[in-house]
Records
---
Amino acid sequence: MIELPVLKRGLEILQHATRNRKEELQTRIQQKKPITEEEEIWLDGKGNNVDGEALIGLLESARDYATTFTALDESQQAVAQRLRDAGTVKPPGNKCKHM
């Protein structure tokens, strides 16, 4: 089972990582400017965090987190895994070189 704070952190990281590109593409769409098929696929896939937001909402509102988490369907489990992967990646830090 993946802890809720890890999932929430993963969602925040994904939202932050996609924000600028998503806003740019949505602005072009609103201005009736074309986007490529690749950009459209990205918006519907990696650029779309709705499933992650829905999963976090479901788990936050659950009376029993563990039971709800174990009852997730296959697609929800895939979303949880994607959020976990994003939430557990360690950002590059300042590495001190010892002399």
---
Amino acid sequence: MTAMRKALFGAALTAAVVAGTGVGAGTGVAAEAGAEADLSHHGHVSLWDGRLGVWLVSENHGPTDVSQATVRLAFSEPMAGGQELPPSCLWSSDRVVSCRTGELRAAGVADELALDLRTAGRPDELTVDIRTVWRDGVADANPRNDRHHVLVLSTGDPYVF
């Protein structure tokens, strides 16, 4: 991804996270007053030899479609610099990655997000906080399933959330 595209994507994602509400322009999915969706994130995290793997699937249990949402992954340990992320993600800091889910139709699932990261050091453990930080102005009355705090030991084992 070019520097210009990263900057534009970063500005758009930042605006979405800061705004917290809005309409899904051009997607045909609009956030209506009182609209509600139940977003969830599930997957697993593994840590081994200074490498961190994150596999995440976002889902909308409905009843309203969501044109776009943003999930934030915050790590207790810094990640090594200079790492490329999938096109839907950007670095918010050396400990935070923010990713777009894409459109989430009611009773729909987004494509799996996979991150292969290097930690700045070789921690024996770290924690990952996963949460939705923006959902296009749609309310979520059940936020428990889109917020996770995962302790990951450096064993290579998958820690499921």
---
Amino acid sequence: MPLLMNPKALFGVTGKIVVTGRGNSPLQKCEVLVEGNASSRTAILNRPHVLNAINCSTAARMMKLYKNWEDDPDIGFVVLKGSGKAFSAGGDVVALYNLLKQGNFQGCKETFWTAYNFVYVVGTYLKPQVALLNGVTMGGGAGISIPGTFRVATEKTVFATPETLIGYHPDAGASFYLSRLPGYLGEYLALTGDKMSGAEMISCGLATHYSHSAKLPLIEEQLGTLITDDPSVIERSLENYGEIVHPDPASVLYRIETLDKCFSHDTVEEIVDALETEAAKKQDAWCVATSRKLQQTSSLSLKVSLRSIREGRHQTLDQCLRREYRMSLQALYGQISSDFCEGVRSRLVDRDLAPKWDPPSLEKVTDDMVDQYFSRLTASEPELELPTQQREAFT
């Protein structure tokens, strides 16, 4: 259901903001709402009952909007935010789980195909994007915001790439942006799924600005007055409400030396051994807790995710997305392991938090299993197509 069939038709000569999908309108049920201004558009993820989790129709709608806005010379920049208490909890993995249970593999493929294409469009967008990361920002939610121009974090922001906890791997471009974090922080976040605050995001570069959530209406109001496509003008506007913050003293960022020492190793087994050695040597509770967390996580997912981050260091965004597409289909098809379905069942469906991982331990995960995740798809299974030549020509 289109929200904005003709954007220009919504605006009068004053350029007054027009909001679609509010109140008792049927548009209230739409998964992406739109607010308009004379020189900008705001896309609002509107699935608050599932923390704005992204499904195929959401990604398709966003793709259509962004392409229309990119082609419109009257639109200078785009704002992206979530409704309710979250920005976006990521991909709708429960919906994928249900599709798999129904044998609808095509629906799963379409979801990944559409979502990854949208991530690529965000990462190569010709106009600035301002993502307001107020609340939960995880997985695919990070994928559609971090590749953009500006990311505003708040005291309510909770970032994570928790995919290994459900027998999966960080995707939607995660192997690109996590691999570019300082030191081996990306490996740590990918393997443990640990959360970061808004203050931590700004400190390590995942966010570009930090502001208290109470100031977000003022930020949006000021952005709405701008008639520009100049990133420097937008940045100055954001800085008017920016704040200097520091991570909590308990933050992992204050343990970066130990983190790098442990997570720089080539294998997951060596990482676990290093954590245990440090724990015994220094009586470090953080090392103990981190080691225990890794040992409770899907062993196959850990090995696959570590390799993904390491490969991502030497790849472009489009290369990462193509590889992640192969990995994602391998995970969902369950020919190597059924850990994805088991992880979603345990954590999000039955909620017993007692997954039965297969293989059950690191030593049971063979190199062939990991290699298969990264192998090219069969001749009958097309690789992910991204408009790289078209978009690179523009940039």
